[in-house]
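Bit of a strange request maybe. I'm writing a small parser for structure token strings and I need a real example to test against, not something I typed by hand. Could someone generate the tokens for this chain?
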Amino acid sequence: MNDYDVIIVGGGPAGVTAALSAKNSYPDKRIALIRKENNPMIPCGIPYTLFSLKSVEENILGDAPLAAGKIEVINGEAVDRNDHTLVLSKGEEIKYEKLVLATGSNAVLPPIEGRDLEGVFLVKKQKDYLERLRVAAHQATNITILGGGYIGVEVADELSKAGKKAIVVEMLPHLLATMDEEFSLKAEQILTDEGAGIVTGKSVKRILGNKKVEEVELNDGTRIKSDMVVISVGYRPNLDLIKKLGVAYQEGRGVLVDDYLRTSEKDIFAVGDCAIKYDFFTGDLTNIMLASTGMAEGRLVGSNLYSIRVVRQYPGVLGTFSTKIGNKAFAVSGVTEKRAKEKGIDYTIGTSKAVDRHPGKLAGASEVYVKLIFSTYSHTLLGAEMYGGDSAGELINMVSVMILNRMTDTDINTLQIGTHPLLTPSPVAYPVINATIDAIVKWFKH
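Reply from user aminoacidic:
Good idea to test on real output. This should exercise your parser:
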């Protein structure tokens, strides 16, 4: 039997981050990471294995940081435990003091007739499976994508760039439903311009074919010629191991954890997609699963395994997303206008457009549109959305920090920022600040 101080089960971003944080916080502890996959994937890079990357191999989450930290990697599957001893599928037993569950999530396969036909794929996080998906995609001509969220849209974008006839079917009124309509419409226009088809407000009734996919039938009877189907309708927490450990969990939601990601058993923690998530603003349960969220949880848990070193409760999930469709970046963080209306939040909007270089004729310059959502009465920043050049990807990260720290319009209006012609928008047209000023002006007019 091998003995370790800390064991992390799961080799994705949350598990790796927890292992590294634990080693940094407790350098004398013996730490091991157990994973089923020999070559874990970078989750956010999976759609790009279809075209932009030369192979699935290029999307492997490397082991260099783990090796540098002298963290042992055990390729195997934990299937049970006996007190503080984990049992692996091949019978090996491993003893621990502290256990971190980072078992991730599994792609959802909806109960659609024909889902077992050859040519139907999920967007899984497994190298061998993704290699089969890549080969099939390169051989196919007409590909239907079920689900118009971020992954579905990114898959459609990749396939369109590869010259395939991609059609996205989304049951909601628009793609990218976590963003407001004006952003969704922009994304839909880009995909359409690339040659992709978009079907919204409809669902897939069944997948048709003789052994292999031939058509997709929608709920209104429409049939779409397809020789391949990619299903991307979300993920559910992987609770296979959790159910055998005896810790509390909620079906479909994840392991129940407290503000420090501790489970119902004091020596077991949970991070990433397998841990239950609460909304930053309302405290409601949420299904948002992000690598960035899991890594934040991993850092907190790694620091506090043996004692509370970081006295900072995990604040809940903010929900910061970014993607790129065609040559335009899209990003969102926090409350959108649509969500503010649904929750009955009194809000004020501020908007701004600016070129992310100055002067705007410089190479690489792109216009960025920013929309900010403020609380009308507290003047606190609640959310942001933007589209434009690549700069939106980092700009949304800056704004998410503002939201997490509950900054007001006055706080943002008096920010001291650094600017440079080759790197940023003009200081007199900085979009986040100017969008804030736009909101302030609206308050004064009222």
